[in-house]
Amino acid sequence: MTYPGPPRPTRVSATPLAELAGQLGVEPPESTAEVTGITHDSRAVRPGDLYAALPGARLHGADFVTQAAGLDAVAVLTDPTGAERAAATGLPVLVVDDPRGRMGELAATIYGHPGRDLLQIGITGTSGKTTTAYLVEGGLKSVRSTGLIGTVEMRIGDERIKSERTTPEATDLQALFAVMRERGVEAVTMEVSSHALVLGRVDGCVFDIGVFTNLSPEHMEFHSDMEDYFGAKAQLFTPKRGKLGVINFDDEYGRRLVKEAGVPVVTFSAEGHPDADWRAEDVTVGPMDSTFTVIGPKDERITAKSPLPGPFNVANTLAAIVALAVAGLDPQVAADGIAAVPGVPGRLERVDTGQPYLAVVDYAHKTDAVESVLKALRKVTEGKLHVVLGCGGDRDTTKRGPMGAAVARLADTAVLTSDNPRSEDPLAILAAMLQGAASVPAHERGEVQVFEDRAAAIAFAVARAQPGDTVLVAGKGHEQGQDIAGVVRPFDDRQVLREAIQQTQG
Ligand SMILES: CC(=O)N[C@H]1[C@@H](OP(=O)(O)OP(=O)(O)OC[C@H]2O[C@@H](n3ccc(=O)[nH]c3=O)[C@H](O)[C@@H]2O)O[C@H](CO)[C@@H](O)[C@@H]1O[C@H](C)C(=O)N[C@@H](C)C(=O)N[C@H](CCC(=O)O)C(=O)O
Ligand SMILES: Nc1ncnc2c1ncn2[C@@H]1O[C@H](COP(=O)(O)OP(=O)(O)OP(=O)(O)O)[C@@H](O)[C@H]1O
């Protein structure tokens, strides 16, 4: 299948290859080639592109130069190990030690620094990036033409494009910014993952506002330890990447970031901490939303509503209001726009077929998120809490035990099941979760069941539900596939849950 890549701008002025060589500080090749685009993926090459042939963990882009040349790339950027293969195509080649680390700045040049014409708001943190991004976009919408980039989708105004990952590669990101600029977008809100910060995906960006939500153990297959993870996130709050930070004062790592950030910061506290610049007070948590008052540094008093349940969504909502306030919006206008957001796909998304109990799908797939969402639902459920949960394969293995323990402790019925086992044996993943569940003392533990088949697990949880109970299907959220042994089969928790409920309704 051809990888289509992201949308591309229709108007790009050509950049002489020699100018790009000058930018990289390498000898200009004997070529009059002019570059009108850039991609790191041979399948996405368009005529006039510079093809960045990158060394990867599995492959080397230089193995695909023939395809790139066949699609009319005009030159290749690569590292010394790819140089010979690239030169064999006859195309001019630019060689640098770290092409991945240089392609962001080249992409920004090739597309004419589109980010400079956009208000850029970047959101980072372990949990809450997607939710906060949707809330910021919702608050901005009534006053600016907006773009959104994140895990669920990319939006250019009203056009929606499926996302491949949380933060696109730099070549795709700069092209996307250029398309946004071309279509009159004024402000872009995007999620900035720690992978993106480490792998140079946001090179070429200087965010007007960076938002930090929180930090807890995650991605330990990628980061050596929490210091490394924190260091990656902190990059967004250096002059190279950002101008101003909006930081969660309730989070331990947030308070540390306040001291270590290299840019001015503004703090917020959903717990009403008096030392925070902006704080939430008089919080009333309802079953599906929360209301509160925001107190600002100049004694502003804003009436706010989080359109999603749970105390953590008060924090996400407050973060969004503060980000927009420091961007110059009237905070009450921002809060009103946010209150009207109809929901965020797969984030505490309700499935309602008229059943006498609450049924929700959520993307919680990290220990901290699982704990937050289960505690939040504990508060709103009138009856028992039945939870379906799995852990992904080929990802951070350290969270399997803690997630099993968390669900065993906080749910009345914990139904452990598969969640993208990928190349791993689903039963081995489940065994690790079960071990965690078994570590919870029997008197603190709910019923624990195991179903390798996710649809069977969902049906079991639904069969347990009584009027007033809550069924949570956690982990996949908006996702529409289940990766078993490298084959992605269609699977949408929302649909499977709906069908399971309907079956019980006869
Ligand atoms: C660790 C990581 O992020 N790896 C990314 C990296 O992989 P890699 O450098 O090892 O690439 P590779 O597969 O060896 O291929 C080498 C090169 O050959 C190129 N290639 C390959 C095949 C081909 O036909 N033609 C071609 O040109 C590839 O585009 C690549 O440039 O570059 C690839 C190309 O862009 C990415 O697809 C890949 O993301 C993988 C799939 C991934 O799963 N990343 C996840 C972990 C990720 O980035 N997650 C974050 C965080 C999400 C969160 O917060 O939870 C995200 O931002 O999404
Ligand atoms: N501020 C928060 N604190 C703790 N948990 C949260 C917070 N916001 C959301 N969550 C929980 O984490 C899940 C993921 O939320 P969201 O998608 O907004 O975060 P994310 O940072 O984009 O996550 P990911 O990196 O996994 O895509 C939600 O479904 C919810 O259960």
From TrEMBL:
It catalyses: UDP-N-acetyl-alpha-D-muramoyl-L-alanyl-D-glutamate + meso-2,6-diaminopimelate + ATP = UDP-N-acetyl-alpha-D-muramoyl-L-alanyl-gamma-D-glutamyl-meso-2,6-diaminopimelate + ADP + phosphate + H(+). Residues 346-477 form the Mur ligase C-terminal domain. ATP binds at residues 125-131. It is an enzyme of class 6 (ligase). Carboxylation is probably crucial for Mg(2+) binding and, consequently, for the gamma-phosphate positioning of ATP. Residues 34-109 form the Mur ligase N-terminal catalytic domain. One of its GO terms (molecular function) is UDP-N-acetylmuramoylalanyl-D-glutamate-2,6-diaminopimelate ligase activity. This is UDP-N-acetylmuramoyl-L-alanyl-D-glutamate--2,6-diaminopimelate ligase. It comes from Streptomyces spongiae.
